[in-house]
Design brief:
Number of helices of chain A: 14
Number of helices of chain B: 9
Number of strands of chain B: 21
Radius of gyration of chain B: 25 Å
Helix content of chain A: over 70%
Low-confidence stretches of chain A: none
Mean pLDDT of chain B: 89
Distance between the termini of chain A: 61 Å
Strand content of chain A: under 5%
Order of helices and strands of chain A: HHHHHHHHHHHHHH
Shape of chain A: globular
Number of strands of chain A: 0
Strand content of chain B: 25-35%
Oligomer: heterodimer
Structural class of chain B: alpha+beta
Order of helices and strands of chain B: EEEHEEEHHHHEHEHEEHHEEEEEEEEEEE
Strand order of the largest sheet of chain B: 6-7-8-3-9-10
Largest sheet of chain B: 6 strands, mixed
Shape of chain B: elongated
Largest sheet of chain A: none
Largest interface: A-B, 17 and 20 residues
């Protein structure tokens, strides 16, 4: 046993030394590179496989189906609106969490993370109970002429519920990274706290807030579990893909899944580029 | 007029204790102390960035101890300047002008006048990260001046600036003061304090230990700490005694060293300064004279003005030889020599 492990060690050492003599990498570097490659492959391979098994003809065909395009437009639109609407309250909330110390702050931070850790179907059930016509919220909404269950507004709430933590956490970290001195300097120059928030904290934390917005948007549009319970119809794309898979099988569902993935990816890349450019402008 | 009464604030294991002082309109008030003495915290209390545990801050008779930061008419220039990194120099300086003021000609004229006075008009469209330390300092100053502060609070304004630029900023500050600006300026640099201050408060370990005009503070320091700032290395606070034989006044600095004092009306504990240039050394015992004693040479080292010799006479005593020429026979560290203090080199006063 001892001699075996010593033999393996020697072998590793030899390989490492050989590698070193060829390139400037240590054995540990090579190990890390190997493991990194494995992880990357694990992420890319299934997606690439799905992509490669889908012909451009299939993609073209599926994109011609009105129900597919409708669901994609609905999904992107609802997630985008949910992100913007909730940002109005979530960003100031994140600022508050970053700047104030109060009793129970850790508890509040934990509550914010709750939607990430609970099963999303459970989140959906909870949300459905929250907005159903029998609930206080549902009654209040219908008094205002707003139907929630089975409507885009309900979908938006379900998406927001599971994706809000990504925005709040990113924005809170962003605000926390802004030195308080800048804000105190602005106050000293006579600015009101609101003006300090708008002109100092927000622009200086903007990059992280924007990346939080992108994350929330991306997470919201890909949500299946919570949304399917709140609203099977109108059908968001994840639900549509699931239905086609159940009814017609893998082959039939794949092109729609690929199309949605490509459009989401395009959106994601554009937004990332935008946040990047904003920062360097 | 700013009146600070018994201001106290604990901060971890550090505290400011019972800080009291008064700054009249138009004063140039310097707070002098080592780093960590609590100077910056004191400015933050004045500006409202921190709140005191107890004590009062009165501005023109009005209690502003707990007033909001944005309501206090103090312009604070932070030690690290805190120039907003995402705004241009112009936007930084114009920050305190609201939209209406910023567009109005009066606001623009003010901005123009101040930036011209500070010599930074050509920098207005630059980004802060492209500016040098001295330029940033002037931008920070311009930014608070645009807001017309009743009192300007400066936190070590010369600390991060090249020696070559210090004179320029100093004369700028003097000019501001001449134009009637009330200034409170904290620094660790006594030269800076002397060259600018109308009044000085010396702060040590969170407490003000002496205050007055630079002349009062530096010519008659009340503690070894202030004496060191004032450039008096041989400072003692002995008790005045009477010579048992002659009845003349004397002080006992150590077992080996008693010093006769010129006739005086003082009594009890006094402050005693011995001029290092008034101590002369001899290889042999000098024939006659007062205040002759034996001591050992601890160290001899060159200084900007000649030589300095550290004597051990039971207590450490510094001797200066401006011409860098020691008397014959005195060469080595460790030698025991004779020393004599000239009468005019002894200054004593009551604290």
């Amino acid at each position: 046993m001892g001699s075996t492990s010593a033999g393996i060690k020697d072998l590793c050492l030899t390989i490492a030394l050989m590698a070193l003599s060829v390139r400037k990498y240590s054995g540990f570097d090579l190990l890390i590179i190997f493991l990194s490659g494995l992880v990357l492959l694990f992420i890319v391979a299934p997606l690439l496989g799905m992509l490669l098994r889908t012909t451009p003809g299939q993609l073209f065909e599926v994109s011609g189906k009105p129900e597919v395009m409708h669901s994609i437009v609905l999904t992107l639109g609802v997630s985008f609106s949910a992100t913007l609407v909730f940002a109005v309250a979530a960003v100031p909330f994140a600022y508050f969490l970053a700047r104030r110390t109060f009793h129970g702050r850790r508890l509040v931070n934990g509550l914010v993370d709750l939607p990430i850790v609970i099963p999303h179907t459970a989140a959906g059930i909870a949300m459905l109970g929250f907005i159903s016509r029998e609930s206080v919220t549902g009654k209040a909404a219908s008094l205002l002429g707003l139907e929630l269950v089975g409507r885009p507004a309900g979908i938006a709430l379900a998406m927001a519920f599971v994706s809000l933590p990504f925005l709040i956490n990113a924005a809170r970290d962003g605000f926390a990274s802004v030195p308080v001195r800048y804000e105190k300097a602005a106050l000293n120059l006579g600015a009101s706290p609101f003006r300090v928030f708008i002109t100092i904290a927000l622009p200086l934390a903007w990059k992280q807030i924007l990346s939080g917005l992108v994350l929330m948007f991306a997470r919201g549009m890909s949500e299946f579990g919570a949304v399917v319970i709140v609203a099977y119809h109108p059908m968001v794309t994840p639900v549509l893909v699931y239905e086609w898979f159940g009814a017609y099988g893998l082959r039939y569902a794949r092109p729609a899944a690929v199309l949605f993935m490509l459009i989401a990816l395009a959106f994601f890349i554009v937004l990332r580029l935008l946040t990047h450019r904003r920062h360097h402008a | 007029m700013l009146e600070v009464r018994q201001l106290t604030r604990s901060f971890g294991d550090f505290s400011l204790q019972n800080i009291s002082f008064t700054v009249e309109r138009g004063d140039y008030f310097v707070i002098l102390g080592l780093s960590g003495a609590g100077k910056s915290l004191l400015l933050e209390l004045l500006a409202g960035l921190e709140l005191p545990d107890s004590g009062q801050i009165l501005l023109n008779g009005k209690d502003i101890t707990r007033e909001k930061i944005q309501r206090r008419p103090f312009g604070l220039v932070f030690q690290d300047l805190a120039i907003f990194p995402h705004l241009s120099v112009r936007a930084n300086i114009a920050y305190s002008l609201n939209k209406r003021e910023g567009k109005a000609t009066a606001g623009q004229e003010k901005l123009t006048a101040i930036t011209r006075d500070l010599g930074i008009r050509h920098l207005l469209d630059r980004r802060p990260e492209t500016l040098s330390g001295g330029e940033l300092q002037r931008v920070a100053l311009a930014r608070v001046l645009v807001h017309d502060p009743e009192i300007l609070l400066l936190d070590e304004p010369l600390a991060s600036i090249d020696v070559s630029l210090k004179a320029g900023i100093r004369s700028l500050l003097r000019k501001l003061h001449r134009n009637g600006q009330t200034i409170i300026h904290v620094t660790h640099d006594e030269e800076e304090a002397v060259s600018l201050a109308g009044k000085i408060a010396v702060i040590q370990d969170g407490a003000i230990i002496q205050q007055g005009t630079p002349g009062e503070v530096f010519s008659k320091p009340g503690s070894p700490f202030v004496a060191r700032f004032a450039g008096h290395p041989n400072f003692f606070t002995p008790r005045l005694e009477a010579d048992p034989e002659s009845g003349k006044p004397l002080v006992r600095l150590s077992n080996a060293l008693t010093i006769n004092i010129p006739p005086t009306m003082l009594r009890g504990k006094i402050c005693l300064i011995i001029d290092p240039a008034a101590i002369r050394l001899f290889a042999e015992k000098p024939p006659a004279g007062e205040n002759v004693f034996q001591a050992m040479i601890r160290e001899i080292y060159p200084s900007r003005q000649g030589l300095e010799i550290l004597l051990d006479a039971g207590i450490p005593l510094l001797v200066k030889y401006p011409d860098a020429k020691l008397p014959e026979g005195i060469v080595r560290e460790g030698d025991t020599v004779w020393a004599m203090i000239a009468g005019n080199g002894i200054l004593c006063y009551q604290d």
